[in-house]
Amino acid sequence: MTRLLKLGELNRRNIIVVFALLITISALVLSRYLSPKNITPLTQSWEKVIPHQDIPKGLVSLSAKDCGVCHQEYYKEWKTSTHAHAWTDLQFQAELRKESSPFLCINCHIPLQNQQEFIVSGLENGDIYKPVKKPNPHFDKDLQMEGITCASCHVRDGYIIGKTGSELAPHPVKVDSIHLSEQLCISCHNANAVVTPTLACTFETGDEWKAGPYFGKQNCISCHMPEMHRPIMPGLPEKKSHYHAFPGSGIPKLVSLKSESLDGMDVKVEAPKKQVILGDSLSLSVTVVNARAGHRLPSGDPERFYLINMKFYSPAGDLVHQTQNRIGERWQWYPEAKKLSDNNLNIGESRRYKTALQPAQTGTYTLKVEVTKHRMDEETAKYNKLGDEYPLFIYVYEEEIKISVEE
Ligand code: HEC
Ligand code: HEC
Ligand code: HEC
Ligand code: HEC
Ligand code: HEC
To answer: H or E element: which one contains 375?
Structure first.
């Protein structure tokens, strides 16, 4: 009987303890949900998206495909541009899947709110990995696939932004030459920020251009959207127009895709005479010049680089001497993002690389010069599991020289 009583008392005590615990836990949980989180607003330009855009009157959608029903050549050109692949790009998609890539990565690649699945209203405690988001009821998946599409640059507040205005257009046109200036390009092609200790955005193409000799003379648009004369739409009279393929480095996004290059670099090779005497040395030099780019070479993505290869083959075809030089930046990403070196070519800068070989025998030696431009190194491509359909480099220059070495 006493034993039973004791047990009863214990149970009662236990129940009180459990109740007390329950109350504390629910108070904690409730306070977490009821008290406002510290939500900080988005401040940096790249944290923000272009607000939702309605379809301008007279049009059926914002899609490039539909603009292309009338502006046929523009659509064909744009489709070959890297802008059209800014979302589908395999490397971009691979990076986006990583936890280290914050929400803001998409803002220059699919810049319209219409293209984004979520609406981000702020950051929890200022943490870029904790965006406060809700589903976007107007999310347009097809428009997302188009990346940097016609509407990214041309549609604002129910108007098509143009530079001249047109009575003939079936859609409202608003003239805004400041919006459609190089400022538009620079808004994405210049970001220099350390976002987190291991994540830095370093596109300095705009700053490089501003500091260089082309400033005030030629700009992003005059070089990358060359002027031409043609009808804006088939059947209309010719007008001043701009090429919309946005040619650049020419490194395609897929093996099956042709990508247009502006060819900014000149390469000059100085080789020995066709015939030399055994005992003479074969000296070879390659001079590279940033002859036509309005910024440094390479520019933009810090993973880009050039290789300058000089190779000597013996009469038997064996590689007997080789030198390799690299132009580009080197970065360390861990434990903190830091630029280690940078020998990019300044505007107009020329650099000469030399090497030589003392031939060991007579016969015909073959000298090869190869200058290649790389999107990224093989290690990065492998790390991101990019397959054979993703081109990593293109040949900028190739030359083969035969030298006869005689007694
Ligand atoms: C401020 C705008 C901006 C933001 C934000 C941005 N990008 Fe980009 N991204 C660019 C531009 C501009 C290029 C093209 C650069 C070039 O070709 O020189 C680019 C190119 C790329 C490419 C292609 C690289 C190549 O070799 O061609 C990848 C991949 C990429 N970005 C991933 C990301 C990731 C991941 C993030 C987030 C950490 C991000 N981007 C955020 C503007 C941006
Ligand atoms: C039904 C045909 C049609 C469609 C669809 C169409 N446009 Fe046009 N657009 C025109 C015509 C016609 C003009 C005027 C051409 C002229 O003046 O020679 C024009 C003019 C323009 C201009 C030049 C404005 C200026 O200031 O000179 C721009 C930019 C433009 N359109 C962009 C677009 C975009 C972007 C889309 C898709 C969102 C689009 N258009 C859809 C027919 C169309
Ligand atoms: C909304 C952001 C945005 C705007 C605006 C923008 N770009 Fe881009 N641009 C990009 C991104 C992102 C890429 C790279 C896409 C990729 O590699 O997947 C790119 C790629 C390019 C390339 C190709 C680079 C290469 O690899 O050869 C050129 C050239 C270029 N842009 C020029 C321009 C010019 C000129 C303008 C202004 C008329 C402009 N861009 C406006 C974001 C932008
Ligand atoms: C990266 C930004 C960008 C994209 C993407 C873009 N445009 Fe343009 N577009 C411009 C700029 C900048 C101009 C004005 C050039 C100037 O007059 O200096 C322009 C001009 C035009 C014009 C006026 C005539 C001319 O050629 O100058 C038309 C029409 C046009 N664009 C249609 C389109 C269509 C259609 C698409 C999609 C298939 C498209 N644009 C995509 C930036 C862009
Ligand atoms: C004087 C003409 C000129 C001007 C001005 C100019 N560019 Fe270029 N740009 C070029 C040439 C030429 C190339 C091709 C380089 C090459 O040979 O791969 C190029 C390449 C690029 C690339 C690819 C970079 C790389 O190394 O792979 C991007 C991105 C680019 N330009 C964007 C811009 C932007 C944005 C502006 C304005 C701030 C601009 N360009 C101004 C001529 C120019």
So the answer is: none
Residue 357 and residue 91: Cα distance in Å, rounded? Answer: 40
Q: What is the pTM of this model?
A: 0.92
DSSP state for residue 51 in the 8-state scheme: P
Per the prediction, the chain carries an average pLDDT of: 90
Fold of 265-406: Immunoglobulin-like (2.60.40)
Largest CA distance in the chain: 122
Residue 236 main-chain phi, psi, to 5 deg? -95, 160
Task: Give the residue extent of every domain in the chain.
Answer: 45-242, 265-406
- The 3 state secondary structure assigned to 162-216 is ECCCCCCCCCCEEECCCCCCHHHHHHHHEEEEEEECCEEEEEEHHHHHHHCCCCC
d(CA 260, CA 199): 30
The CA distance from 251 to 246, in Å, is: 12
What tokens does 274 get? 């066709």
Which residue is closest in CA terms to ligand 1's atom 27? 375
CA torsion through residues 67, 70, 72, 74, sign = negative
Contact 269, 399 (CB under 8 A): yes
Q: Which residues line ligand 2 (CB under 6 A)?
A: 59, 62, 66-67, 69-71, 150-151, 154-155, 160, 162-166, 168-171, 173, 175, 232-233, 236, 239
What phi and psi values does residue 396 have, to the nearest 5 degrees?
-95, -30
Under-70 pLDDT residues of the chain: 1-36
pLDDT at residue 61, as a whole number: 97
